[in-house]
User: Fold this.
Amino acid sequence: METIIESRSSYSTSKWMKIFLLLFGLYCVYSAFCEFALHKLILAIAAFYGIIYKKRVYVSPEGLVKEVKGILGTSVEFFPWQEVKAVTFSFKGDAMMVFFERGITGWKILFKREEEALLKELLSKYAPEVGIDSMSDFSSNSRGKKNKGG
Assistant:
C-alpha cells in the first residue's frame, strides 16, 4: 500500500544491534552444540528474531496499516477510514499521539507534531464525517494547582 505518513511508532533494529545479535546468535549456536545446551539454542533463536523483526505503522489512502515482520512471516492489520468514528489529538513537546476510535476500541499512533496539518487534511479528505477532538500540551507544573479565580 502507498505510505502517506509513517508513524514514529514504527520500529526496526539498528544496524549495529543486528551485527551484535548475529554474533551473539552464532556464538549461542556454536556453544549449544559444544555443550548440548538447549537453552542456548533458544537464546540464538531469540537473537535471530531480533535481527528480522520490523514494525511499520503508517497512514495510507485506504486507512491505517500496521505491518509486523518476523521469523514466521509478515502480519498486516488494517483499520479502514470507514470504521473510524472519532479522532483525538494529544500533544506533548514535538510528539503527537493520535487516538483513532472505532467505538470502544481503536488505535493510538505516535506522530511528529509537524504532521498535524497533513493528518487533518487526510481526515477531511478520506473520513469527513469523523469527529475530531484535541487535547493541549500537558504541563507538569499544572498538577495539583487550584484555580485562583474561584
Notes: The mean pLDDT is 85. The two ends are 54 Å apart (CA to CA). The chain is about 30% helix and 35% strand. The first strand starts at residue 5 and ends at 6.
